[in-house]
Specification:
- The structure is a single chain.
- By secondary structure, the protein is an alpha+beta fold.
- The chain folds into two domains: 191 residues, 4-Layer Sandwich (Anthranilate synthase); 253 residues, Anthranilate synthase (4-Layer Sandwich), CATH 3.60.120.10.
- Helices cover 33% and strands 30% of the residues.
- It has a 20-stranded mixed sheet that branches.
- The structure holds ligand ISC.
- The site of the ligand C=C(O[C@H]1C=CC=C(C(=O)O)[C@@H]1O)C(=O)O has 17 residues, from strand 8, strand 12 and strand 20.
- Keywords: Isomerase.
- It catalyses: chorismate = isochorismate.
- Pfam families: Chorismate_bind.
- Belongs to the isochorismate synthase family.
- This is isochorismate synthase.
């Protein structure tokens, strides 16, 4: 391949070292000699301070955009453009998506300019709570989607890299592809350098009265909780998680990344996520609940259920934490989650460990009972079947799930969509992480829908549970007010 013509183009990043250029050229030449590849990904090290700023700078509501960050772990992914979208609906959607993911992996060649655990293909996306979606508000979302983005920036505590993905059909020669790869790399570098200039935030808008937001739908809620308690007394199920949706007007063209920026600053030990399918609304939030993180055969998951507010003083905070840990109602609600996760993981695991008593997880607005669970997966266990088995945990569904499920549909007067579904990312080598998309909202330019739920057991008090949903709604509502 002749690199002379390319080297004359001052726009292209031929600042790559000679060795990398040599390996890249050879890799691309070889690609065009093989028949069985449809896609290729290219990973390069880059300098990037803040992937969210990069996403915001180039925000384009007409294309797929994705963000994921765990501020406490200094780990973030920003991505855009849908090179390849895998989607499915119905009871077997995890399985169908998994098969298509494997097909993509089998037909993709990967090049990496440096060795990194997360170089190569990364799929990003999520799943709705139920098997199907029907509400028009969710029209641009599907019941299960994994996307291979055209560009992705991944940053961990030491290092940043970019992965660029291409469909080989679009290139007639190796030279064409090499040019496109270098051009895309240059575009990403330019996007990053653009983030160093100051971004101007929209002026704060007048916000809807919080008191109205926190009163709307109260009577429906009390009726639903009382109905659920009656079913529990009649032994239809032992626990159900009921949620509410609250809708507020919005009048802002500001990209939803602004909201996410405020959330990540305040909820450092949460997973902050944003999915924009390329049209319609964006779904985003800051969730404290990890569904599962996979590092080869090691699986980390958790039970997070049982809540109380934060105290205003150290002493009040500690007293509330203590009240939460000894509350039979909350311990009961939590125990269903731990036991059920253990049962569901049993077919996939060699060993499984957790402490006998829950710890306390403190967020800025609320504290929860929390039991981290570690398991060693059996060999050859794939991520998506495990997710299918774990979702929905009784922290967002009910116990037993099959019995509680129809009552969620019957007692809630909105469609959950992706609220409380799994959202996250995974690579081709079996690593990745999915969180439970609670403390979230569906954000459009004119309206924002926020969601919050809580576990109902036999001795739940509808008023207290209502207050708990208000606490859980607060972060999203506060984050919106500055838009
Ligand atoms: C369903 C939600 O929270 C779950 C997670 C933690 C604590 C919960 C609780 O105490 O009820 C819920 O199970 C939500 O925030 O929408």
């Amino acid at each position: 391949m002749d690199l002379t013509s390319l080297s004359k183009n001052p726009e292209l990043p031929l600042d790559l070292d000679k060795n990398t250029i040599g390996r890249l050229t050879q890799f691309i030449e070889a690609l065009f000699q093989q028949e069985d590849n449809s896609f290729a990904t290219f990973t390069f090290p880059i300098d990037c301070h803040d992937p969210l700023a990069v996403l915001q700078k180039g925000w384009n509501s007409n294309t797929f955009q994705y963000y994921w960050e765990k501020p406490s772990e200094s780990f973030a992914i920003a991505a855009g453009g849908a090179l390849h979208k895998i989607s499915a609906e119905g009871a077997d959607r995890f399985e169908v998506v998994n098969k298509q993911r494997q097909t993509f992996i089998d037909t993709t060649s990967t090049f990496s300019a440096s060795t990194h655990a997360y170089s190569g293909i990364i799929f990003v996306g999520g799943f709705s709570f139920f098997d199907h979606l029907s509400d028009p508000a969710w029209h641009s979302f599907e019941a299960g989607t994994l996307t291979v983005p055209e560009w992705l920036i991944l940053q961990d505590d030491k290092y940043a890299l970019t992965t660029l993905s291409f469909s080989l059909d679009h290139y007639s020669s190796d030279e064409d592809l090499l040019k496109a790869v270098l051009q895309r790399l240059q575009d990403v570098k330019q996007k990053i350098s653009g983030t160093f200039s100051q971004t101007v935030m929209d002026a704060p808008q007048s916000s809807p009265q919080q008191s109205t937001i926190f009163r709307n739908g109260y009577q429906d809620w009390v009726n639903a909780v009382n109905h659920a308690k009656k079913e529990i007394q009649q032994k239809s199920f032992k626990k159900i998680v009921l949620a509410r949706q609250t809708t507020v007007p919005r009048n802002s063209a500001a990209p939803p990344t602004e909201m996410l920026n405020r959330l990540r600053q305040q909820y450092q030990n949460c997973s902050c996520f944003l999915v924009h399918p390329g049209r319609g609304h964006s779904f985003l939030g800051a969730t404290p609940e990890q569904l599962a993180s996979f590092q080869h055969e090691l699986l980390l998951t958790e039970a997070l259920a049982g809540s109380i507010k934060r105290g205003k003083t150290v002493t009040e905070d500690a007293t509330l934490a203590n009240d939460l840990s000894i509350s039979p109602k909350n311990r009961n609600e939590h125990q269903f989650v731990v036991a059920d996760i253990e049962d569901r993981l049993a077919p996939f695991t060699q060993t499984i460990h957790h402490k006998k008593s829950p710890e306390i997880k403190k967020l800025s607005n609320v504290q929860h009972l929390y039991t981290p669970i570690r398991a060693r997966l059996s060999e050859e266990t794939d991520i998506l079947p495990v997710l299918a088995q774990l979702h929905p945990t009784p922290a967002v569904g009910g116990y037993p799930w099959k019995k509680a499920a129809p009552y969620i549909r019957q007692l809630e007067n909105f469609e959950r969509g992706w609220y409380a579904g799994p959202v996250g990312w995974l690579n081709a080598k079996g690593s990745g992480e999915f969180s439970v998309a609670i403390r979230s909202g569906l954000i459009g330019p004119r309206k924002a829908h926020f969601f919050a739920g809580c576990g109902i057991v036999s001795d739940s008090d509808p008023e207290k549970e209502w207050q708990e949903t208000n606490l859980k709604l607060t972060p999203m509502i506060s984050a919106l007010q500055y838009d």
